[in-house]
Amino acid sequence: MSDRDASVPPMAQTEYVQEPLAGFDPGAGGIDPALPLHATTFVVVDLETTGGAPDGGGITEIGAVKVRGGEELGVLATLVNPGVPIPPFITVLTGITQAMLVPAPPIEQVLPSFLEFISDAVLVAHNAPYDVGFLKAACAAHGYRWPNPRVLDTAALARRVLTRDEVPNRKLGTLAAYFRTATQPTHRALDDAKATVDVLHGLIARLGGHRVDTIGDAIEFARAVTPTQRRKRHLAEGLPKAPGVYIFRAADDRPLYVGTSGDIATRVRSYFTAAEKRARISEMLAAAERVEAVECAHSLEAEVRELRLIGAHAPPYNRRSKFPERAVWLKLTDGPYPRLSVVRGISPGDTGYLGPFSSRRTAELAAAGFHDAVPLRQCTHRLSLRTVTPACALAELGRCPAPCEHRITPEEYDARAVEPFRTATASDPQPVVDALLARIEVLSRDQRYEEAAVVRSRLTAVLRATVRMQRLAALTGIAELAAARPAARGGWELALVRHGRLAGAGVSPPGVHPRPTIAAIRATAETVPPGHGPIPRASAEETERILSWLERPETRLVEMSSGWASPVTGAARFRDLLSKAENAASHQLSTERS
């Protein structure tokens, strides 16, 4: 039934829900989306059904015509025994009677021939979700694998190509009359399929004016893309099918958005498809005038270049990785009786610090955890070894050893408060963790669960920061490291890392020993001098991307200037505890929201 929206009584479609087609799946049907329309093989199909929902049966007739370049290549037509009585209104509409279907084969016998007929072709139908829904359901019901072909819907294409002034609606009968098809639709499968072939050719002839000349463009053109996407889709032309970074630029050459992909051309093209629905990206596309591509050796180099470009230019439509300079640190102040202070950076003279933190709030949360565990003073006064300052309420509550009143010597304060912080951040946080766990246990025993949850969040902040800093410092302390990872197409992806910064990257060809390529990379690599702290020469995010690449099972360490190790008693051994604390906080949040 081709004109279902016009001729079938409402009761015929009461249970049917039209689903979107996966017609632009890059892997669908093995058809290259860049294949020109004139070279594409189409199978135009039409079904007649009993009018119910697609439940694996209900098909009464299949008609299919295979065409390419305007030439008919083959025809498949057969009646199908649905195994159920045909409603009288279907017989009136199609002329197909119960007696005609009794000797017809069931759908499970028809499917093998039909699936072979549509192999390596683009499937075309008028109101395609209806026909494809029945065919997919039949395959699922009878154990056949649906080949997931690319699908072109002539009804959807007509809505994009033809105006209301040209045709009042997009029914097959209306379009057949408009294009003066050789075969008129008759509510029989083969006639309707042949009429759809002529309609398809008429629509393709109109696509040239819209700069649509490939099957991928035609499928996407038929979908609900915005006028801006359609107008700007030429920006995706001529880009390389290679890993790298792409930059959307405005008319004044200002970067608007920076992204990365293993296939730049395919990724940028996706911004101009119906799958892209983000409002901020639509706004960005309206302002974009060109797309610049930066090819990279492999995915790691692309990710690092993306981070550096975002950090350098702060594109307005990127939400993440901007402003790396806004990271903050938790540092012990100079002078007698140090306290914790949130600062923008650390200097070579600093010996007690933790970070970097993405925000001041997370740094203050970690500071509160240390204040719960060790007797660091919290007041902001600059204390003197000679002059006494009045104590605050924390001293009266026993939460501070009152160095302001000289109740504790500088040496004792360092031993009880300062050294535990330095030890926890640089090597072993066990005493701090034990103190916070003990406090959580006391609060829970007293049924003060909300306060216990607050301490748990502080413990999480402390562990997350110490694990992160020690992990970063282990890599950034290495002057040079060369690593290799098998490339997808053979050969090796190579990376040269100096003090946690990607200094060089390349790919060695298949069948060639990678060491000459490593030597060439080293000769042209960026010079990276040593520095102070866990991220001396790169952002924390860049070093973490490198760490993730290095820690993959398939990555091999080729050369290192020194050993790569973390403290045996370091914070990493508390990863399980950190995971449990994070999961508990997430569960609590979801419970509160529900």
From TrEMBL:
Residues 241-319 form the GIY-YIG domain. It comes from the Bacteria. GO terms for cellular component: excinuclease repair complex. The keyword Hydrolase applies. The keyword tRNA-binding does not apply. SUPFAM superfamilies: GIY-YIG endonuclease, Ribonuclease H-like. Pfam families: GIY-YIG, RNase_T. One of its GO terms (biological process) is nucleotide-excision repair. GO terms for molecular function: DNA binding; DNA-directed DNA polymerase activity; exonuclease activity. Keywords: Exonuclease, Hydrolase, Nuclease. InterPro entries: DnaQ, GIY-YIG_endonuc, GIY-YIG_endonuc_sf, GIY-YIG_UvrC_Cho, Ribonucl_H, RNaseH-like_sf, RNaseH_sf, UvrABC_protein_C. Transmembrane segments: none annotated. This is DNA polymerase-3 subunit epsilon. The lineage of its organism: Bacteria, Bacillati, Actinomycetota, Actinomycetes, Micromonosporales.
